[in-house]
Amino acid sequence: MEAPAAGALAGLKVLDLSRVLAAPWATQILGDLGAEVLKVEQPGRGDDTRLWGPPFLEDGSARPDAAYFFCANRNKRSLAIDFARPEGAALVRRLAAEADVLVENFRTGGLAKYGLDAPALRAANPRLIYVSVTGFGQTGPYAQRGGYDFLIQGMSGLMSVTGRPDGEEGAGPMKVGLPVSDLFTGLYAAVSILAALNHRAATGEGQHVDVALLDSQVALLVNQAMNFLVGGASPRRLGNAHPNVVPYRDFATSDDYILVACGSDGQFRALCTLLGRDDLAADPRFASNAGRQRDRRVLEVELARAIAPWRAAELIAAMEAAGVPGGPINTIEQVLESPQLAAREMLRVMRRDDGTPVTVIGFPGKLPASPASYRLAPPRLGQDTRAVLSALGLGDDEIERLRQDGVIALAGAAERGPTA
């Protein structure tokens, strides 16, 4: 059966009042899966990430958008509305009355002064799924604090287990090279929205979904947190080594670093045979993973000596043939140019409404019956304001008055002049 082009979430209306990354990541997921996403931005400025450059997408405009903006804002339409103004807030309330989902990431209680809080909007639209993404949630002693990815990586304990161990050169806590706390939170928000939609389908009622960066990152401590809860010892930094599995780390060859990831005793024995070190496989200390973990320093020194003479590409090929998991440490450029990503169609070229091309990284899930789609390139600020407000019932004269009053902005309005 031919897959429908509309996507699994076609017909779902999402009002996106968020900016930066965590919540926009969630709404982009919904958009990729077919939802209509209306992104409300501040006139004249827009989402903060439009300015987070260089690099910027050079398109000939006076203020091009930063590359950062493009990672989380495809399949969205941009409305430039100042909802700090009463007329602007009224427009957002009208949009919310027709929405299935509203996503915001203002500080707890920050939208109440505009009449855009969950109780107000859900009173007018009980089916609305109102999603608040904050640093610390709607409750608790930290609820009023602002939360940013870097702070959450530190406060959650993630940085305490990331970085070189004490005693080594360069030791100390280290953040992950990507804003993972934001991204994890966006994923949890998207999953929560889908659960709330299923609940609404059964009951007819919406709800206020509360998603916090700290909660999400703590949930992703997974085995490290369970190691403490079960074993009682606080996990520590191990560099590239694994807290539970050995050998599972980087090793230096004669020309580069490679990764070895033996998840079973059989894989470890195959590695030893490949390296000509069957004596290590036969050593009772290393017969099980528990023993290898206990005596990891002794074992890893011996493995490092055996690996050092190899060339990286030759050892990786030999490991693949022997069924031993391993691989290179790619640069971003190398992985984006890899044949595997090409085969998986993970890079997609989209064109903005002015024709400017932009390459984006695609949605990773492959859904044969309801695939992700790439309908709308990340929009220019306010490019859809007129079309959406017209569909809402506003006439051209009213739209022009709102523009002249500074309540809304239209992409290119300054160049076009007043609407006839």
UniProtKB/TrEMBL annotation:
Write out the coiled-coil annotation as residue ranges.
Answer: none
Q: Which UniProt keywords apply?
A: Transferase
GO MF, one example: CoA-transferase activity
The record ties this protein, via InterPro entries, to: CoA-transferase_III_domain, CoA-Trfase_fam_III, CoA-Trfase_III_dom3_sf, CoA-Trfase_III_dom_1_sf
The record's annotation in Pfam families points to: CoA_transf_3 (PF02515)
Q: What is this protein called?
A: CoA transferase
Q: What is the organism field in this record?
A: Muricoccus nepalensis
